[in-house]
Design goal:
heterodimer; A: 250 residues; mainly alpha; B: 303 residues; alpha/beta; 10 helices; 13 strands
């Protein structure tokens, strides 16, 4: 087995077998349960239609996935450095790229687990309509690059900042800023600043593509501009993570 | 040379930490790297491992300059770092198996258990590392450092947290490894470890190597008088040694205190005393050894 695969498997174990990883997954499940309950209640009271609740659920899964990815990214670099387990890993006969690839594998597994956890909730809120499949596809197609990009950003912050705690704080601030389209009112989103922000924000790409595909019933392939932004974000953060990890020090 | 460091200078965060560090370690040698807290020992080790980039000077491992991720160098290297962290959710067997596979070694469970037993860790099926004591973690760290049968071992405080029997066991392992040609760089504050294990030492103070040599050679060249308490049967003879390098300081009952000039080897002094009819039945060292040397070298520099 290659070093990258071994390290990815170890990272998966860190998420699925360690108390810390399981606590995060439990927290994610609790948050998804709470939101799903709210959305199902709204549907039962006919306050929101099926398309709207699936769209909301996709946004929530994307935000929680990005949060988990950023935590895993910071923990696998800054966290490991603080716990003293990173240096032995950096001194194994494997290239820095292979070690980074293993760390990236860990983030991808975290997102896969999150995606897997989200599917029953998507089904719970969307099974009465026709939008569930679109929601799952949007999550896979646009959620994956957006979320992985946040995970790579977590690696960059973990490498660059002195402590994992400050990395986590910086990551949460970036995540909140990126997720602000969910919080901004329609008026502000239509302003020049709002539109410019939307154009470069991977999280906006995810929610706007979900809006177009689920609520407006547009074809997913027609969302190529949003898809492009999400993948550019992925490429940019990967480049930053690679450059940062190559220079990681004790 | 397994390790060769010459005129190493290194800064971190704009502050110069290492000014002029020298170090050389040959195969089969145990080298003790000593110095006060914050002197730059761990930084020197990090630079030697290629984890920090020097500003100037020469750093060679296995005759080549280490760079981050240098698989050819790291495959022959075992390291026990100062901050020794583990994956607490793993078992000791799982942890060692994971690192063995990273070193491209496929070890059967029996072999993994043998490796753990070698450093004094008995089988603990299902017990997670998170429940291990400090000493057990230290032993596990050493087992990890030895997993690839390295040609060079770099150990930072390897006997920290170990009980006296554990220390002795680790000493025996290190002596055996050195006998098989493994070079060992030992960073420690425990001078007993250094005295028992090391062939040569280097002392770093404020980022500079202030002394580097064999211990006996350093004691002699730094002018440290060695003091010994001798037990004599039949009291103190009338005849005193003619060699002015042997000074009789005090006598009380059957014990007397002598001081030897660094240029005189102790075995030659005992030979001369016996020749003069001194019936020496017991010899105890009274300071003047490594601890005094260390204090003197580090204080002289600080002053």
């Amino acid at each position: 087995m290659s070093p990258a695969l071994l390290i990815a498997r170890k990272e998966a174990g860190e998420l699925l077998l360690s108390q810390r990883g399981l606590a995060w997954l439990m927290a994610m499940t609790a948050a998804l349960s709470g939101f799903a309950l709210l959305l199902v209640s709204n549907t039962e009271l006919s306050l929101l239609d099926n398309a709207q609740v699936v769209y909301d659920m996709v946004g929530i899964v994307g935000a929680l996935g990005a949060l988990l990815a950023i935590v895993v990214g910071i923990d696998s670099t800054g966290g490991e450095r603080e716990r003293g387990s990173l240096v032995p890993l950096l001194l194994v006969p494997a290239s820095r790229e292979a070690i980074l690839l293993g760390k990236i594998g860990g983030i991808a597994i975290a997102w896969a687990v999150m995606h897997g956890l989200a599917l029953p909730y998507l089904w719970a809120v969307g099974s009465t309509g026709q939008n569930m499949v679109q929601g799952a596809i949007i999550l896979a197609l646009l959620g994956t690059p957006a979320v992985l990009g946040f995970g790579f950003l977590g690696i960059v912050l973990g490498v660059r900042l002195a402590s994992a705690r400050s990395g986590l704080l910086a990551g949460l601030i970036v995540l909140l800023l990126s997720a602000s389209p969910l919080l901004l009112g329609p008026g502000l989103r239509q302003s020049a600043i709002g539109r410019a922000f939307d154009a470069v924000n991977p999280f906006s790409s995810l929610v706007n593509a979900a809006d177009a595909a689920i609520i407006d019933s547009q074809a997913i392939v027609a969302q190529w501009d949003h898809i492009l932004v999400a993948y550019l974000w992925l490429a940019l953060t990967l480049w930053l993570a690679r450059a940062g990890f190559r220079r990681i020090v004790q | 040379m397994l390790v060769h460091i010459h005129s190493l200078q290194l800064s971190r965060g704009g502050v110069r930490i290492l000014h002029d560090v020298h170090l050389s370690l040959a195969a089969g040698e145990i080298y003790g790297l000593l110095g006060p807290n914050g002197a730059g020992k761990s930084t020197t080790v990090a630079a030697a491992l290629g984890l920090l980039v020097p500003d100037a000077g020469e750093v060679c491992l296995f005759e080549r300059m280490p760079v981050p991720g240098d698989a050819a160098i790291y495959a022959r290297l075992g390291v026990l770092a100062e901050q020794n962290g583990f994956y607490d959710w793993m078992t000791a067997e799982g942890y060692l198996g994971f690192f063995a596979r990273l070193y491209r070694r496929r070890l059967a469970t029996v072999e993994v258990r043998d490796r753990l037993a070698r450093v004094g860790l008995g089988p603990r099926p299902g017990q997670r590392i998170g429940t291990f004591s400090r000493g057990m973690r230290q032993r596990l760290g050493l087992a990890r450092a030895l997993i690839a049968d390295p040609a060079l071992l770099i150990l930072d405080e390897p006997t920290n947290g170990l009980d006296p029997r554990g220390r002795r066991e680790i000493h025996d392992v290190l002596i055996e490894l050195a006998g098989r040609g493994v070079g060992i760089l030992l960073c420690t504050h425990l001078l007993d470890d250094v005295d028992r294990l090391c062939h040569r030492i280097g002392v770093i103070v404020e980022g500079r190597t202030v002394a580097e040599s064999a211990i006996a050679e350093l004691v002699r060249t730094t002018g440290h008088m060695a003091r010994f308490r001798l037990r004599l049967s039949g009291g103190l003879p009338e005849v005193r040694p003619a060699d002015c390098r042997i000074t009789l300081l005090a006598c009380e009952g059957e014990w007397c205190l002598v001081e030897l000039d660094p240029s005189l080897a102790p075995e030659n002094a005992w030979r001369e005393l016996m020749f003069l009819g001194w019936h020496v039945t017991e010899i105890c060292r009274e300071g003047g050894g490594l601890e005094d040397l260390y204090l003197s070298v580090t204080e002289r520099r600080a002053a």
